[in-house]
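hey
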């Protein structure tokens, strides 16, 4: 039994979304996590092999802090199963700690495969809620946006605590994604932003408000089909992320390279300080921006469409 789940990008609104402002996110099907389950020898129990990290987890042996073991146990409990004799193999080509939601995608593929192996399909709301439990270990205080966009597998307008709104931009967007190659756990940047917010709530709340307003304006620009306007809003969002100190010299350089190559706007995506940057491009600039990212040393370049 096999199941997959996509990576994701945050188009606009990361970090502020943790503090109740809206954000827009989309799945990235060009990189996926895959879970495969097969029956194992009777009495052998349930073992999970996470091939990309070399982890081997035997369910039922402690593992209280292991996000994948936690989510597997929760899914099995929901199905009324207690450690079936299964071998679970997890693989992913989503870079880890890069803002592309690798943790959420692995957990999503895992839960989906467990339900399928038990003979049923998990609905997206149940799936998202289960994956959220593992996100708490990856992120500390997650907004819930990653598990939601990955579990539903469609673009979303996300507001913490509000009913999910699927989201379709008025026009198709072409996004070039470049991996800086620098790993940066989301838990750290989210934690640093929280520390700053606790020290100076007024300043941080004002930045979150500005990011929230940028997200609202981005939605309106998409509904108008105003790609240059949307590009400028991505740039504005990046400036606010700089104020939150979650960017880096390398990310800034990649962003500048993309803008110089004709991108309509560019920003970091996800937790920041490393990981991926995204650039909004029109069809004519796709190859130029991809080549510019590669020449600037990006570890990997992907092109995705949001529609
Ligand atoms: C991570 O993809 C997005 C952040 O806003 C964290 C979160 O929303 O949980 C940085």
């Amino acid at each position: 039994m096999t199941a997959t789940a996509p990576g994701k990008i945050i188009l606009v609104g990361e970090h502020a979304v943790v503090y109740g402002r809206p954000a827009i996110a989309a799945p990235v099907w060009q990189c996926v996590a895959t879970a495969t389950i097969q029956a194992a020898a009777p009495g052998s129990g349930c073992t999970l092999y996470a091939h990309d990290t070399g982890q081997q987890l035997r369910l039922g042996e402690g593992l209280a802090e292991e996000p994948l073991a936690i989510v597997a146990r929760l899914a099995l409990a929901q199905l009324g199963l207690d450690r079936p004799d299964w071998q679970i193999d997890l693989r992913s080509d989503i870079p880890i700690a890069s803002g592309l939601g690798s943790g959420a995608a692995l957990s999503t593929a895992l839960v989906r495969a467990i339900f399928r192996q038990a003979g049923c399909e998990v609905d997206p709301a149940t799936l998202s809620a289960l994956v959220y439990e593992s996100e708490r270990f990856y992120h500390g205080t997650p907004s819930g946006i990653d598990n939601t966009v990955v579990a539903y597998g469609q673009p979303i307008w996300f507001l913490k605590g509000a009913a999910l709104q699927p989201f379709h931009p008025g026009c198709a967007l072409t996004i070039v994604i470049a991996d800086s190659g620098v790993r940066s756990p989301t838990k750290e940047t989210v934690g640093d932003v929280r520390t700053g917010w606790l020290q100076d709530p007024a300043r941080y709340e004002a930045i979150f408000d500005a990011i929230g307003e940028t997200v609202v304006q981005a939605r309106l620009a998409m509904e108008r089909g105003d790609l240059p306007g949307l590009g400028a809003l991505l740039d504005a969002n990046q400036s606010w992320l700089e104020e939150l100190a979650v960017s880096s010299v390398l990310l800034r350089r990649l962003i500048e390279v993309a803008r110089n190559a004709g991108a309509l706007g560019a920003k970091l995506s996800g937790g920041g300080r490393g990981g991926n940057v995204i650039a909004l491009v029109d069809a004519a600039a796709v190859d130029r921006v991809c080549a510019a990212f590669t020449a600037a040393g990006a570890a990997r370049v992907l092109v995705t469409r949001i529609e």
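The radius of gyration is 19 Å. Residues 201-224 form the longest helix (24 residues).
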